[in-house]
Every structure is written in structure tokens, then in C-alpha cells.
Please model this.
Amino acid sequence: MALTVSIVEKFVVGSRLGVVADITFDSSYTTGGEDLTPQNLGFRNSLSFFSGGVARNATTGAVEVRHNRTANKIQAFWGDNANAAAAALIEVASTTDLSAYVVRVFAIGK
Model:
């Protein structure tokens, strides 16, 4: 499966386009991240800026979301309870169901 991207708002930022979008993960997360291209966000060919944050689930908590620009992937991380003193984040395990997690993002591209 793939991410679901819902554009909330589009606007112009100088010579670039901006979007606010809600991204929902699928039911089987892939280690290394899920594909997220500029086209997924409504851009023609480039993604200049991406601000993610925290994907929330109404019942079980949250995961931190990061964009891997080189690989065109969006990755999910959560706290490592075994290493709470170090406040470590580890990537969500492969095949984890994140379909109830939604993150609102801000992106600029062309």
C-alpha cells in the first residue's frame, strides 16, 4: 500500500508553490520509509522544504515523522522505552500498522 496525501491548502510563496497537507500512513510500514515524491504533494518536479512533526493516533499515541530528501521517503520513529534515559528514537518496525496515524505537513516546491 501507499501513503494517503490530502491537500488541505495550496498557496504561492514567491516563485514557488506551498501546500499544507495531511498524510496518513498505510497498514504496513516499510523500514526505511514510505515513498513521498514532490508529485504526491502536488508539485511538478521539486520539493524545496518539508516540515513534518508528529503523526498522531487518537488511541495509542504518536510517532515522529521525518522526510528523507535523498530517498524521497517519509519515515516514522517512536521512543525507545528500553533506553528512555537517552531519549532515543528508533524507526518503526517493518509491517507495523500505522494506518490510524496522520501528520499535518507544510511543504514548498515547484
In short: The first strand starts at residue 4 and ends at 13. The chain has one domain: 4-109. The domain at 4-109 is CATH 2.60.40 (Immunoglobulin-like).
